[in-house]
Known about the structure:
Structural class: mainly alpha
Distance between the termini: 91 Å
Amino acid sequence: MQDRPEPPVLERNQATHQVHRHEVLWQITIPLVVGLVLVLALMVLAVAAPAGTASQLADISLIYLIGPSLIFGLISLLLLAGSIYLIVRLIQQLPFISYRVQNFFWLANARIRVFDDRLVAPFIRMKSSASAARTFRRRVFGKQRPR
């Protein structure tokens, strides 16, 4: 076997991760469980109800009508399950990717601020020197008359 390097340790923003877990519990998991319990309860009630008198041909026709729907439903279910799997994989990677992007923009912001400060420093020094000269002139020569 080949020696493969260890995958890098991905950093996770702990504060947003805790909020995400709390929201997943209350906005996804609990409503899903409650919905499933209600559907199961309705299924049990439907099975426990008396069947009545239905003809055999009506039952066979119903089977032929439901069969194709079940096949298309199964295909849709498989596509949905595959989509859910891919989305879960994407969601697992998004916090790490977005954290790195956020750090990049923080670094870019800091570098741009340093660049901006260096860019305006000569103008600030010039204005500061002019202001200091005016203050010096006022203190040495007294108040000047307005023009």
